[in-house]
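DM from R.C. (forwarded with permission)

"hey, sorry to bug you on a friday — could you get me a structure for this? deadline for the figure draft is monday and I only need the backbone to look sensible"
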Amino acid sequence: MTDAPISAPPGTVTARWTGPAISWSAVFAGAFAAGGLTIVLVILGSAFGFGSMSPFAGDGLTLTSIGIVTIVWLIFTQIFASIAGGYIAGRTRLRWSIHADEVFFRDSVHGFLTWAVASAFMFAIAGIAAGGGALGATAVTAAAVAAEEGAPAPSAIITDRLYRAPGADPETLESAREEADRFVVRAITDPDSVTAEDRAWLVEDVAERTAIDVNGADTRVQAAFNEMDAVRAEAREEVDTARAASATLAVATALALLIGAFVACGAAVFGGRERDGLEDRLVSP
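My reply, with the result:
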C-alpha cells in the first residue's frame, strides 16, 4: 500500500517561499544608519560630559553622577539607534508571499542582524581608532609624565619631612635622602618587608643627619610610617574604585547591547508591517 500524494483543494492558493529569505541590502542600510546615529550620539554625550566636568574640587558633577549619566546615555543611545536601524531594515526589505508568522520571524531576524552588523561595525571603528591613536596616546602620556615631573611623589614628600633640618647642608643630606627615599617606596609597596632593624636604622640616621635627639627622630619616623599607611590605603581605594567602575561599565554595556538587540527586532517587525500595509493600500482598487 502506497501513500497517495496530498493535493490542495481546487481553487486554493498555495503560498510559496519566493525570493531570498534575507534582504542584506536592507540589513546593511539599517546597520549603517544605526552606526551613524550611534557615532553622533556618542559625540554629543562626550560634549555633555566634558561640559559637566571641572578640574577644581567641588565643582561640576561627581564621579558617581558622571558614571550614572554615562550608563543612562549609553542605554538611550542603543535604544534610539536600534529603533532607527531596525525600522529602516524592516521598511526597506523585500516582500514575501508567505505565512504571517514566517514574516514576523524574518522581520525579527532582519532587526537582529541589523543590530549585530551595526555592533560589529562600531567595535571595528573603535579598534581602528584605538590602533591609529596609539602614537597620539604615547605622545600624550609622555607629555603627562613631563608635566608631572615637577610634582613631588608621596614618597619624596615623606622623605622631605623626615630630613627637614633648617640650616643643614643640602649636599650632606643628599645621599641619605636617596637611600631613605628607596626605603619609603619599599615600605609603601610592601610593608611586610620592613623589619625592626630597618626602622631602628632610619631613626638613628634621621637623628644623625638632622642633629635632633633620638626621641624627636622616632616621632618623625612614626609620623612617616603613618603617612605611608595613608598613602597605601588611598592607592588601594583608587584601584578598587577603578575595578568596580570597570565592572559596572562592562555590565551596563552588555545590558545596553541586549536592549538594543530586542528593540531592533521589534522596530524591524513594525517597519515590515508598515511596508506591507502601505503596499496593500497602494495596490488595492
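R.C.: lifesaver. The CA atoms of residues 183 and 198 lie 9 Å apart.
me: no worries. The two ends are 50 Å apart (CA to CA).
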